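Treating backbone geometry as a discrete language has practical consequences that deserve illustration. In the encoding step, the backbone of a single protein was reduced to a row of integers, each denoting a local shape. The amino acid sequence and the backbone structure tokens for this protein are reproduced below.
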Amino acid sequence: MKSRMFSKPALLCLAVLATSTQAVQTDHAAPVLTAATKLRLVNPPAQLLESLPAPTRVSAKPGGLEKAYDLFIRYADGTIYNPTTGDYDKVSLRAYQQRTDKGWNAEDPTSSSFLAPTVVMRPGQTVRFRLYNQLPEQDPKKCASTDINLPSHKGCFNVTNLHSHGLWVSPSGNSDNVLLAIHPNVNFDYEYNIPSDHPAGTFWYHPHTHGSTAMQVASGMAGALVVEGARYPTAKANGDLDILLKKFQPRRGSAAEVLLLQQIPYGCVNDNGDATRPCASGETAGMEGFGQVEPPDAWSTSGRYTSVNGKVQPILELAARQLHRWRVVDTGFQASIAFHIRRAKDPAKLLEAISKPNQDEQVMALCDGEDVPQFEVAADGLTHEKIIRKQVNFLMPGYRSDILFSLPATGAYCVFDGETNLNPAHPETADKGAVANTRLIGVIRATPSSPAAAPAQSPEEFLLSQLQGALNAIVPAKLPPNLRHDIAADLKQFKLSRFAPHPDFTAEDVARLRSSPKEYVTFNIAGIKDEASGKDITRFLVEPADRPQPSLEDVYHPGRIDHKVVLGTDQMWVLQSKRGGHPFHIHVNPFQIISITNTAGEAVAPHYQNMVGTWKDTLLVLPKHKIEIATRYERYIGEYVLHCHILEHEDQGMMQNVKVVLPDGRGGAAGDAHQHH
């Protein structure tokens, strides 16, 4: 069950072991789809269509380097399949939509989905979004609050904005500025200037207005951003892994590799905004009360199901004995996913079982074959130096994992959550009231490959042969012999050194940063007395290193700068948690994981297996663990945030402001231009 990176000796042992012990895989005919299961076939997310250019404007950039899109935020009425009942639930949810989209009905192939469209970008492009907030107006008196870190009322979640999670772009002005508030009936133009040296990879977008983030993301407002790369390695610069993996792309390209996971705990609410389940007959469910996301077990007790590309328990069709890439995006608002792919020995029975209501025990009993190993080549959109082999892929809210895998035989495979939707912030709620039928995420229908696949090999041998074949297929003019030789030698050790986007911090860098001033982030959940009522209120805090007792000073304040850092420098951060596990996310500049230690002297949690040395922008911070990360403040000045990516925690104050400023020329930070006027 443990993940591991490959070294050459380890690889040889693995290959011998896998070849000598590999079970004989029996091909089954791809299971026949009934009329009901055909409705469950899932397509890749639709791509966002470009908007028509203004007739009076002339593009200043060559064709293809300037893109403009219209993105609408509005209520969509439709249905979501419910495996508990075997029927479709009526819902009305906030959604990102295209101009012509309607509501979603899974039985109407012409309707749209609550899943937001995918946006495909390229380095060097200028990408514009006109965001139309067409949600209903809010009552200013009802929605006014003297404490922005306490939950809002029903009807107060319609102010929004747009965050491009993981993109390396400016946080200021009308770029990735999450401090903006776009009110209902307001249209706003965002402009992202994607640098020509931006990493190719898998990113995503979602709303980020403080107080409304969890409710809007849990309504389904999340979409993939794919930055496609076509740069070949040179003697002076690394290239994009896409050039090696393009051979394995589906017909619809990189957008068809997206596997976007969502948690939508829709239900019916009373006038106080508390969730009530089940809905009365004929009632339409929605996301209207903070009580639907606030409890630590909100997802595991919701009775809802993780959706894949807008469908619940879908059927995904893939060819056996071929290499596949999935860009897995976990957009969940709260719970983690222990992502497994496992063979089913009786495919026909499995597809029959998922057609029936209340089928989880039977379905999971039929997921009874071998686990399919996942070979992670990138995390959070950033290509690894080494491929990481995983039997179970721990995904936290905000994580992205680019995996390569192959299905050893035709038939059917279960994609499921092996942890029953454990909330990492509150492990004590793992089985408390949990609904077991949230485990199955989807079913892969494995069809025969065409042309005929190579004879059976171990997963490692098959992966290596496919990558070497892709390398050999690159025309000589694109890749000089010496670079081709180096990449081939790396691949034999499962290394991707010539495709990693960021230079690692050296041992000398780490020693220097450890002896320099650091930034500290300590998450905590604590009861703090409210002066008005005299009662303890649970508060979600980010504390400094020297805070002996929890304090209201440590909840989010929009006008306070918690971390002031200097452009052109690098720095070490120290992450810890006093209570609960929290996915730390920081905007703009990603970080490299330098060390992970268990402060109780125990083994580090399995979630961290082989993470040291990798680059990320979101990372789970568990109690009794101390994590050192290092980052560089490059190119962009301005103000942005860090926060816990369990989104109801962020909305209740588990967030801080970071400001990158210019240097003063004397080794310090420059002041604001008008500070003395």
User: Anything to note?
Assistant: The CA atoms of residues 530 and 536 lie 6 Å apart.
